[in-house]
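User: Please fill in residues for this 219-position structure.
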């Protein structure tokens, strides 16, 4: 049985990050008799300069990428379908906002120590993209923390302190220096990288290939 170390550089604000992860999950499920993985999430901010109050998402995308309304609609349709294939629901019916995700990364760093990082990350994706929760509002964010069985009051204390600020900044810097400028990026065994919301087949192919290569190196 091959056990992979998989580091995922991602942002909760990135829809392709959840699609990519769900497809990786499918791939690992298909390969469960041959392979397993230890997964760690690492911080990346799509919009580090975003003010705390956030911005209407459609407005933000039009400003950042110059998308027309028609292109925005096509983009949403493509994303909705990719989500459906991956088993994730994107909700485009209500007001959606883009926020500064730095505090989310601080809580995810804490959740890693508590052994609940993936659970919290997935709950944040669902809150943001499916439930349209505004995660820049403290109570909304703390409800997500509580939902996965983490201590709400401890999380509140973290938000009101400087805990994990340095850790998140250092991790971001580390991956930036490695040349990672887009998310999601999946780093396998510290050597191989896959980026984007890849389909399950791409993950299966990559994992099998890496497994074979590493077996040869050991032989």
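Assistant: Residues filled in for all 219 positions:
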């Amino acid at each position: 049985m091959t056990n992979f170390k998989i580091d995922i550089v991602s942002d909760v604000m990135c829809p392709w990050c959840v699609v990519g992860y769900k497809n990786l999950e499918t791939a690992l499920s298909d390969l469960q008799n041959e392979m397993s993985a230890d997964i760690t999430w690492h911080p990346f901010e799509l919009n580090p300069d975003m003010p705390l109050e956030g911005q209407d998402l459609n407005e933000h995308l039009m400003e950042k990428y110059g998308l027309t309304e028609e292109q925005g609609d096509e983009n949403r349709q493509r994303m909705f379908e990719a989500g459906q294939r991956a088993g994730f629901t994107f909700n485009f019916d209500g007001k959606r906002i883009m926020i500064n995700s730095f505090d989310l990364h601080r809580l995810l760093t804490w959740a890693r120590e508590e052994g609940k990082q993936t659970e919290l990350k997935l709950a944040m994706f669902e809150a943001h993209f499916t439930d349209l929760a505004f995660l820049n509002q403290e109570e909304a964010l703390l409800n997500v923390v509580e939902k996965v069985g983490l201590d709400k009051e401890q999380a509140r204390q973290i938000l009101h302190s400087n805990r994990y600020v340095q850790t998140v900044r250092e991790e971001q810097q580390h991956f930036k220096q490695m040349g990672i400028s887009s998310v999601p990026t999946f780093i396998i065994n510290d050597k191989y990288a896959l980026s984007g919301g890849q389909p399950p087949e791409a993950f299966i192919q990559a994992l099998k290939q890496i497994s074979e290569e590493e077996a040869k190196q050991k032989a």
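For context: The chain has a mean pLDDT of 95.
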